[in-house]
Structure formats: C-alpha cells, structure tokens
Write a structure and sequence with these properties.
The complex is a heterodimer of chains A (410) and B (233). Chain A starts with a helix and ends with a helix. Chain A has 14 helices and 12 strands. Chain A folds into 2 domains: 187 residues, no CATH class; 168 residues, no CATH class. With 410 residues, chain A is an alpha+beta fold. The longest helix of chain A has 54 residues. In chain A, strand 7 and strand 8 form a beta hairpin. Chain A is elongated, with a radius of gyration of 34 Å. Chain A has a 6-stranded mixed beta barrel. The model of chain A has no long low-confidence stretch (mean pLDDT 85). With 233 residues, chain B is α/β, with parallel strands linked by helices. Chain B has one domain: Rossmann fold (3-Layer(aba) Sandwich), CATH 3.40.50.300. Chain B is 34% helix and 28% strand. In chain B, the strands form 2 sheets. In chain B, strands 6-7-8-3-9-10 form a 6-stranded mixed sheet, with helices on both faces. The two termini of chain B are 13 Å apart. The model of chain B has no long low-confidence stretch (mean pLDDT 91). Classes of the chains: A alpha+beta (410), B alpha/beta (233). The structure holds adenosine-5'-triphosphate and magnesium ion. Adenosine-5'-triphosphate binds next to strand 1, strand 2 and helix 1 of chain B.
C-alpha cells in the first residue's frame, strides 16, 4: 500500500538524520559492492574457461593415431598406425545416430602462390562437416561441399590471413592459386576465433588430396561432433567405446594410449563444469558471508538508531501512534536505505567491473567480468528482505515499549 | 469524564515493590479544571500517566468517558489517546527535527487527516497560542515558553475531551507561566476538561479545584474561589 504521508515522514526522518542514514547505508553498499566484484570476477574466470574451448565445437571429438607402445597379438611395438577411409566409413556406419558431424583431416604443408606472392602454409584436407567442427566462419564465397568431394575438385578455401598475404586488398574469390604445381580455384575465404594460426590455413577436399598427393586412402585424423542429444556422461562413454572399437579394429592393445586415442571435449567440459561449480560454491559462501555481515551491520545500526529514537516513539505514541505504525515507519525506512545503498553498491560494482573489462584477461584469465540480471535481481531481493529483517526486529521491540518508559528515555 | 475507584499502583524495584498509589478515588466531570498538588514522590505523575493511558494500574477501576479501561492493548490505547486525550509535558517533548507547525500537525496525521487539512488546522492552533510567525521554526529555535505553547497547540489540535498537563510550567519563569496558564484557562472556558499537576500554589490557585496527594492517598479535595457553575461531587 502506498501512503504518501508515511513516505513523507520517512524522507523527513532520513533527511534530518543524514549521518545516521549514511552510516547504515554504507555498510550495505559496501557489502553489496564486495559481493558484486566477487561474482563478477568469478564470472570473468568462467568466461575465460568457456572461451578457451569456444574455438572448436563444444561437442568435438578427435580420433588421433601415432605409434604403438605395447606389443599386441604378435605385433611389435613401434608400429605406425595409419587411419584410412575404411576406418572413417566404419565409424560413420557404426555410430550413425551418435554422431552429428564427421570429417577426416589430412595435414599437409604446401607453398601457395599467386602471381608474384608465394608462401608456405598448412593445408588441411577435410570434409564439409569440418566447417561446423572447427567453427569456421565464412566471410566470402562458400565452404567445401559434397559435390567437391565426389568430383575431387581442385578447389580451396583460404584463411583471411592467407588472402591478405597473397592478394592484399584485391579480391581473391574466383582466382586461381598455384599449390605445389596444381592450380586451385579459390571458392571461399574464412575467419576463425581461434587466433592467427587458425586463419593462416587452407582447406581442400579430402578426396582431392588423396588423389593428387600419394594416390592413397590415408587420413591423418578423424574429427567428430557427437550428437548434442547425448548428455556429458553419455558422450564420454561414447568416446570410450569408440576408442575401444577402433583399437580392436586396428589390432592395437586395448590400453595403448599412445597408439590411438580419442580426445573428447565432453571430458574437458565436465572437468571445467565441476571446477566452476566448486568456484561458484565458494563464491556463494563468501558472498553470503559478506551479505550477512552487511545485514548484521545494518541491524546493529538500526538497534542503535531505535534506541536513540525511543523517546520520539514515546511522543508519537502519546499523540496516538499505534505500535504497528511505528514498526512500519522504521521498517520502511530501513528497507528504503538498504535498497538505495545496495543499489549504489551494485552500480559501483558493475561500473568497476566494466572498467576492469578485459584488461585482466592476459595475466589473470579474467575475461569480461560482469554480473547477470538474475544476480542483480536476486541481490536486490536479498537487500529488501534484509532491510525488512534489520528494521523489523528492533522496531518491533521499540514499538512494544510502554509509552511511559519510552518517554522517560533520553 | 474521568472516574477512578480504589486505584492502586506499585512499581517493582528488584525483588521489592513500592506501593505508589494506595486506593485513589476521584471523579472529574466534563469541563472541570483540576490541579493536583503534593510533595515530590507522592504519586502525582503516576496518577496522571494512568489517566492518560500511558501506564497501567494494578487494581481498582478506571472509567474514561464511561468506558472501563481494562486489558487495554497498545493499539486500543493509542486510538483512545488520539481521540480523547491531549498531553502537555514539563519537558515539552517536541520532536526536534520537525518544525513547530509539523509538531502541531502530528496528532492529526495519526488521526488520518490529509496533509493539506492537517497543516491548515495546525496553523489555526498555532495562531491561537500566538505563534503563527514561528510556524516554520525548529523547537531549538524557540524559547521555553514558546515551546510549551507549541506543545499546548499540539495537545489541542485534535479537540480532545481532556487535556493532561504534568507540570506544564515547571520549566518556565513567572511571566511565561502566566501566559501558559491563561491559555489553559481559555481552553477550559471553551469546555475542555483540564487536569494539571503543579508544585506552585499560584498555579493551583488559578484552577477551579485542587486535589492534594500525600504518600499515595488523597488528603484533600476542594474547590477554589474560581469555581462558578461547575461543582464536584
Ligand atoms: N517506573 C518506575 N519505576 C519505579 N519506581 C517508579 C517509577 N515511576 C515512579 N516511581 C516511583 O513512584 C513514586 C511516585 O512517583 P511519581 O513520579 O508519581 O511522583 P510525583 O508525585 O510525580 O513526583 P514529582 O513531583 O517529583 O514529579 C516515586 O517514589 C518514584 O520513585
Ligand atoms: Mg511528577
């Protein structure tokens, strides 16, 4: 219920007792400021973690091979493992419904040449799905498609920085560049959030690479995106199963980690997730400690304030104030001060966080620290409730003092 | 207006308790102007506070405006105080951060009168006590006599049936005492019941009836020569 007269009483009381109001507000503002900074910094940490993985798809899995380190079924150690198209197709057929994206990857290093400019670059031969696994952003033209693979077309998608190296400001799309003696048509230019190295790359179709360079069916690595319907645990067990199956298919000892392994983002995500959960738990603990300290602070001040005003309450009662009206007056004043002060603390905190911005990203892994609307709303509710409690308990006591005793107080 | 029968009041002090009022019988009719005298500690303030519903008696009956005061809760007491009673204290008891006008208007706030009307009525009463020019001053900018007149205006603003004054002139010099007493006489002449505690014979002499208290009992109760129409039982 909005009672303009009561608000007038409260404003007068706040205004005429500024020191007291500022003091009680300060505690709360300070508590909320600390709380905001704490939360912001942790969310900054969490942002860093998230962006460390954001370069690739969150559901990415990589099947990679090296050399065996354990003898198995009469086979020697030190045998080099080679993935082939057959393995790629096996995975595709065997796990169809657990896979969202699938691409092979063949690593090459070639000199790319356009007119008088030439440079050596990493070139990856991939499938069209690779775009989603790597989160490649197409700036111009298009990515590789199925038709390119079927026709073993000599087409190339180049990184933004290759384009800059070879073409400068001039258009590159539709031009032909020379790669190790063959001529490739530039069909697309991309960028990538993974940094400069990821933008100094070129992509060509797997089939083209296999035909021209070696005439074999070798692939270096298989990249997968697991079906996003799988939860983290299911995805992890899918990765383990895939690892077992491929080892057995390629005659590798089941525990030979250095011959073939599946790197699974689900595992990393799970680790980061539990780490962040612990961090947030600590923050909530420390944060609520700070808030409680603030609430106790304001309660103490309110107790003092009410003691100081006991006589005034006695006078008001003698003039006809009902106990409840005294309680409300104090509570409303307390809520008002806490809310305003808390809001100031919150704004100052948010402002400081925005000043910090990304300046701590390099050294302290704090990226874009900020507090979410949910936190702000939550903190505001906590403030109002704490103002209520801080005001109510002492006010209730004060309102119950007999007027004659209140009047005698000094 | 006020009827008190065999009223007792004790204050506990540690394990002991002191018996302050020992069976008071008193009847004050509407429109009377009564003073209570007695030595310090005789129980005058105690009696007035009970009459004013600021304190609770232990035994006996108290009727205010015909209503038996019993098991009074704070809320009900507050309503009755606001409706029937006006207080004037020795130490004025003005709220320090409110102006004279706002102090006078405060009882009307608790009565639920809207702000505009409140301030109008309050101004009217300030004018009545001769302090219209001081309306926007804070209490600490006023002299003792002025403060007490503000307090009287505040006591009157709700048009109470009874004005209770505990040594209203106790902190004032003789000139200001006279002006305060003149005000109280005016109020009484308008028909309001006035009940005043005093130490000063000259003050008591200006009322219409003097009740003398000693050790918690009434030792004398007589009309003064000021009495004309109203008589007591
Ligand atoms: N709250 C209290 N607790 C304990 N004793 C009290 C309390 N109030 C009053 N008394 C005692 O009761 C007695 C009467 O007090 P009261 O204030 O009524 O006297 P009084 O006649 O008004 O005196 P004075 O002329 O000094 O104002 C005194 O002995 C006083 O000490
Ligand atoms: Mg007294």
């Amino acid at each position: 219920m909005f009672d303009i007269d009561r608000w007038r009483e409260i404003f007068q009381s706040i205004n005429k007792n500024r020191l007291r109001s500022v003091l009680s507000g300060f505690t709360v503002a300070f508590a909320i400021l600390l709380f905001t900074l704490l939360f912001g910094i942790v969310s900054g940490l969490s942002n860093s973690f998230k962006s460390a993985f954001a370069d690739d798809a969150q559901n990415a899995m990589f099947v990679r091979v090296w050399q065996t380190s354990k003898p198995y079924k009469g086979l020697q150690t030190g045998r080099t493992i080679q993935l082939k198209n057959d393995d790629f197709n096996y995975v595709k057929e065997e796990y169809e419904n657990k896979i969202q994206y699938q691409s092979a990857r063949i690593y090459k290093n070639f000199t790319l040449k356009y007119k008088n400019e030439a440079n050596s670059y990493s070139v990856r031969a991939v499938h069209p799905d690779h775009q989603f696994l790597e989160k490649t952003i197409i700036d111009e033209g298009r990515y590789l498609n199925e038709k390119d693979l079927q026709e073993k077309s000599k087409v190339i998608v180049i990184g933004r920085l290759i384009k800059a190296d070879l073409f400068g400001e001039k258009p590159a799309l539709g031009k032909r560049i020379n790669m190790n003696g063959s001529s490739y048509l530039v069909i697309g230019i991309f960028s990538d959030e993974g940094g400069d190295n990821e933008e100094r790359l070129a992509y060509i179709p797997t089939t083209t690479a296999q035909m021209i360079y070696g005439n074999n069916d070798y692939i270096s690595q298989i990249n997968l995106g697991y079906n996003p319907d799988l939860n983290l645990d299911q995805a992890i067990s899918f990765g383990n199963q895939l690892e077992r199956d491929l080892r057995s298919k390629l005659n590798i000892h089941p525990d030979d980690q250095s011959a073939l392994s599946v790197r699974n983002m689900a595992e990393a995500n799970k680790n980061v997730g539990s780490f962040m959960a612990i961090l947030y738990a600590i923050v909530i603990l420390v944060g609520s400690g700070t808030l409680i300290a603030g609430i106790i602070g304001i309660s103490n001040i309110m107790i003092f304030v009410i003691k100081e005003r006991t006589k005034e309450f006695g006078i008001r009662k003698a003039l006809g104030a009902q106990p409840l009206s005294i309680v409300w007056m104090v509570v409303q004043e307390s809520v008002f001060i806490t809310t305003i002060a808390g809001y100031l603390g919150l704004s100052l905190g948010t402002y400081l966080l925005s000043l910090i911005g990304d300046s701590l990203e390099k050294d302290y892994f704090i990226k874009d620290p900020s507090v979410s609307t949910g936190i702000v709303v939550g903190a505001t509710i906590v403030l109002i409730v704490s103002g209520l409690i801080a005001g109510y308990i002492p006010a209730k006591r004060a309102a119950n003092i007999k007027p004659i005793e209140a009047l005698r107080a000094d | 207006m006020i009827r008190i029968e065999k009223l007792h009041k004790s204050y506990p002090i540690g394990k002991e308790s002191i018996h302050v009022l020992k069976g008071i019988d008193l009847h004050i009719k509407e429109g009377e102007f009564v003073s209570i005298m007695g030595s310090s500690g005789s129980g005058k303030s105690t009696l007035l506070n009970i009459v004013g519903l600021l304190d609770i008696h232990d035994e006996g009956n108290y009727y205010l405006n015909g209503e038996l005061i019993k098991d009074m809760n704070e809320k009900k007491a507050a309503i009755l105080r606001n409706k029937f009673l006006g207080f004037v204290f020795q130490s004025f008891n003005l709220i320090s951060y409110k102006t004279a006008l706002e102090n006078v208007a405060l009882p009307l706030y608790y009565k639920g009168v809207n702000r505009k009307e409140r301030l109008e009525i309050a101004m009217e009463y300030l004018e009545k006590v001769g302090l219209k020019e001081w309306a926007n001053h804070l209490p600490n900018e006023l002299s003792g006599g002025q403060k007490q007149r503000v307090a009287i205006a505040r006591a009157l603003v709700t048009k109470p049936k009874v004005v209770l004054a505990d040594e209203p002139t106790g902190a004032l010099d003789s000139t200001t005492t006279d002006s305060v007493m003149d005000l109280l006489k005016d109020i009484n002449n308008e028909g309001m019941t006035v009940f005043v505690i005093t130490h000063e014979e000259e003050v008591a002499a200006q009322t219409k009836r003097i009740v003398r208290l000693k050790d918690g009992v009434i030792v004398s109760d007589e009309l003064t020569k000021n009495t004309n129409s109203v008589s007591h039982v």
